[in-house]
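User: Can you help me understand a structure? I only have the sequence.
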Amino acid sequence: MSVRAGSARRDVTPNRRVRLAGHASRTTPSEGVASPLMVRAVCLEHEELRLAVVVADVLWWGPALADAVRADLARRLGTGVEAVWVVGTHTHNAAQTATTLAPSLGPYDEAFAASLASAAAEACAEAVASLTPVTLRLGEAACDIGVYRRRLVDGKIRMAPDPAVPVDRRVRVASLETHDGPVATLVQFACHPTTSGENRVSADYPGAAARRLDRELGGTTLFLQGCAGDVRPHLVGPDGLFRLGDEAEVDRLGRQLTDAVHEAMASAVEIDWGVPRAAAALVPLSLANGGQVDLALGALRLADELLLLGMNVEPVSGYGRLIRNGWPQVWPVGYTNGILAYLPTDQQLAEGGYEAVGSLPHFALAAPFAPGTEAAVMGAVDRLLKTVVGERSR
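Assistant: Let's start by predicting it. Here is the structure, written out as tokens:
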């Protein structure tokens, strides 16, 4: 089966001071650039279907921006909007792209949002112009930079490291390559990019790893953030609590991830493409006050052994385990096609704490999710994935 792929990237680093999104403690404009922000795109084509995944070094794509960019790219590519994804790496050192969130997460930056839209269009156009037949190799390794960030202290859940709770250490790698090397490398890993506390523009450790891999492997590296809503870099101060680091630690963690990708590629295995497919679903989720919000899910089937599941939320690590148990070939990708809120498990809803309750004001969410959310989400995930792979492929 012939699948063609092309990739490209564009620099979207602001040339001015901006307010950085993601840390409520920052209230002044940025103080320089620690590392560039990029928009990276890969386009795939099989017969009449084109798929596009655009990854940006942003906290997330605001819902209105995501909708507009996806519609524009679908028109340009001649494909359905369900086949076009925009994904954020979730760096906390870029400008805000959402208009619907509380000011505590940073004010909407219209100029930065416009630059993302232009860069996405340019990168996809270049990717399509360079489409070439590719094979697919999959590999996996481990990277130990993250730690569970919820700990019971004096009867309450605090933002503190809890190494006793296991997190997903897997680095999953897909190489789309010709005999000359990779056209694009997809890297999936689950850990918050909250390494640096500096008030400087930075792509954090995913950007550091992607830049290094671009040089060392060739092609374009796209980082896909997994179920990392309750996992962050294991940087701990003398008091046993989390601390924020600097750009030197960003580079160190980026090197660790890069090394894991090389390890995964050393034992990667070529697999058949299968028939690429795309699907999407809106899932109404109940809030504790009786209200409802919509979870947006997307599925891209690249092969029987490789499916991407996009979610417009910050999914916690528990969903990664649930998805892996039912669909081991699925890569869950958060911060995809907009942003709604954190998506906690039912246990976390009962426990309280930041993800379940403390985050709500930042997302302007009127109430926590209702009990039973976990079953509603996983039921919808199961139904959506079956539409692209069928029961026999599980």
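Now, to help you interpret it: The two ends are 21 Å apart (CA to CA). The mean pLDDT is 96. Let me know which part you'd like to focus on.
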